[in-house]
Design goal:
There is one protein chain. By secondary structure, the protein is of the alpha/beta class. Helix content is 31%, strand content 30%. Strands 5-4-3-6-7-8 form a 6-stranded mixed sheet, sandwiched between helices. The protein has a 3-stranded antiparallel sheet with strand order 1-2-9. Strand 3, helix 4 and strand 4 form a beta-alpha-beta unit. Helix 3 crosses helix 4. It is globular. The structure holds zinc ion (ZN). The site of zinc ion has 7 residues, from helix 6. Zinc ion binds next to helix 6.
């Protein structure tokens, strides 16, 4: 699949919207991206997660681990395609944890999967969970790379597509200056 074909799927499902948006961070942007809207279609989940699975198919690992909620579906699908175990971390009281009886053993090799990597904050939180168990991260797979600078990781990072967005404070927003009304995504009008 070409990048343009992928973008077309994101646009068609509403996962990628172009315009003038007020994000939940309070910043304004010309792009709104919601990965769940593409993953709601299992065939698209298989298509995108298949690229991640292909990239890591020759890597030696036992388990896929993902941060809840967005990463769970991606991790589950990549694990299904490669015949691996899939577990997820959850944030409780501000800290990322393994719950529900999930565990990692010492030296267990794990692949981290996410839907979107923006600042790699959740990736690093998952890495700390892996390290606390004495397990070993072997890679990071993500549907979308939205980073503005390459995250510092000791293992390969693969994403199926890179989507950059411009973000502005309201005062600096050129779309506001043009009096283009903004949309607050996720809210009904
Ligand atoms: Zn604006």
């Amino acid at each position: 699949m070409t990048n343009e074909e992928k973008l077309e799927i994101f646009r068609k499902t509403g996962a990628l919207q172009e315009g003038h948006f007020l994000l939940s961070s309070g910043l304004h942007s010309n792009i709104y991206f919601q990965c769940a809207l593409v993953l709601q279609y299992p065939s698209y989940a298989t298509l995108f997660c298949g690229e991640i699975a292909d990239f890591f198919s020759s890597f030696d690992f036992d388990t896929v681990i993902s941060p809840a909620i967005g990463g769970i579906l991606v991790g589950q699908e990549v694990a299904r395609l490669l015949g691996k175990r899939s577990i997820f971390t959850e944030r409780t009281d501000g800290f990322m944890n393994l719950r529900r009886g999930f565990s990692l053993s010492k030296n267990e090799r794990v692949l981290i999967c996410e839907d979107v990597v923006t600042t790699a904050k959740s990736t690093k939180e998952v890495m700390s969970v892996i390290e606390q168990s004495g397990a070993v991260p072997v890679g990071l797979g993500s549907i979308v790379d939205r980073t503005t600078e390459q995250p510092e990781l000791d293992f390969p990072f693969f994403s199926t597509i890179k989507i950059s967005a411009e973000v502005f404070t309201q005062e600096q927003c050129p779309l506001c200056k043009e009096n283009i009304p903004f949309i607050k995504p996720g809210s009904r009008k």
